[in-house]
Amino acid sequence: MIDRSKFEAEDFLIDATFQHYCAGTDQLSIDYWTKYISQHPEQQKTIAEAEKLYRLLSGNKSKLNERILAFQQSFEQVKVVPLKSRRIWWSVAAVLLVLGLGSIFFAEEKSVPVAVYAQTYQTKAGERKKVTLPDGSTVWLNSKSILKLDENFNESNRLVLLQGEGYFDVKHSKKPFKVQTSEFEINVLGTAFNVKAYPDEITSEATLIRGLITMQPVNGGGIITLKPSQKITLYKKTAATTLPQQKRQLKISHPEITIDHYQLARDSTVVETAWVQNKIEILDQDFLEIKTILEKWYNVKITFTSPEIEKYRFTATFNNETIKEVLDALQQVEKFNYEIKGDQIKISK
């Protein structure tokens, strides 16, 4: 039997049956928690706080077509038009839920107005930038990233849109902080997390460092509640013709979400957020994965002359090295040759 005597609000919130109780979607859960609350009056204040958190975080979990379209079109600077309905199917292995690696519940969908985005922060290739938002929250933007703030940010809402990668340290407020990407929406109150959503990559990620977040794929679906140290990876349903040649061989029949823990390097650095410390952490990754990181970090274009080279695997840490120094170091692990001409790098056997 679970001992809930020392539970805090967040502990109740990540319980799936408690979520069903708050949503009113399962009679057994409603009966159980109604009885539990009556039998534990000393916890009523904490449970009431958990219910409030649920309402704030789940809020109006509606279809995001209009807002996501505004997000996409705002980067392209073209007129907003209705987006055709589409569904993103996703799955999470049941064993992950049993182990407590994620909680999923469902909410009713309602229509929402199109958001307008007024303020923009942007980084170029090879640039990283720290931004302080009007509410006191801070965001570190990685290379080739764009962050847009809703015109009513810190007034009626705290809504931002991200293309690229950002590390968020959100100041606590009664207004939920919402991060939207082209693939999913994240809701938080006060916490630290990393979001990676580059349009040219086949996955999008959200990594929770501390606090509590909920995440929902666009156009409906399940809401996932994350606990600290957990990471969501969403595999996009991308047309093969839009992917680089090396990635077209990856046959993904539908987007899938996996939930896991973030990775730690030997010095306990979180691999997913090492870039905030101006570090490149490579942990047992193949050259094809590393290529994407190096291209954005150094503003270069890398090509391989052999598919075999793409499979070379490396583990390494880089701080302020040049691209030449990085390649020289990788050569100590696997044998390959490289040629640098301006921003073009050719790697061969």
Main CATH class of the largest domain: Mainly Beta
- Using the CA coordinates, give the radius of gyration: 22 Å
Query: In this structure, how is the largest beta sheet organized?
Result: 14 strands, mixed
Named at the architecture level, the CATH assignment of the largest domain is Sandwich
What is the number of domains?
3
**Portion in beta strands:** 25-35%
Task: Give the beta-strand count.
Answer: 19
Low-confidence stretches: 60-65, 75-113, 239-254
Broad structural category: alpha+beta
Order of helices and strands: HHHHHHEEEEEEEEEEEEEEEHEHEHEE
> Helix fraction?
10-25%
Which fold name corresponds to the CATH topology of the largest domain? Jelly Rolls
* Helix run count: 9
What gap, in angstroms, lies between the N and C termini? 59 Å
If you average the pLDDT, what whole number results? 78
Given the C-alpha coordinates, what overall shape results?
A: elongated
Please characterize this protein's 3D structure.
By secondary structure, the chain is of the alpha+beta class. The protein folds into three domains: 9-57, no CATH class; 61-261, Jelly Rolls (Sandwich), CATH 2.60.120; 279-348, Phage tail protein beta-alpha-beta fold (3-Layer(bab) Sandwich). Helices cover 24% and strands 30% of the residues. The protein has helices spanning 9-13, 16-23, 27-39, 44-58, 65-76, 94-98, 287-298, 307-310, 323-331, and strands spanning 103-105, 117-122, 129-132, 138-141, 146-150, 158-169, 177-180, 184-188, 192-197, 203-210, 213-217, 223-226, 230-235, 257-261, 280-286, 301-304, 313-318, 337-341, 344-348. Strands 1, 2, 3, 4, 5, 6, 7, 8, 9, 10, 11, 12, 13 and 14 form a 14-stranded mixed beta sheet that branches. Strands 16-19-18 form a three-stranded mixed beta sheet. A two-stranded antiparallel sheet has the order 15-17. Strand 18 and strand 19 (344-348) form a beta hairpin. It is elongated. Residues 60-65, 75-113 and 239-254 have low confidence and may be disordered.
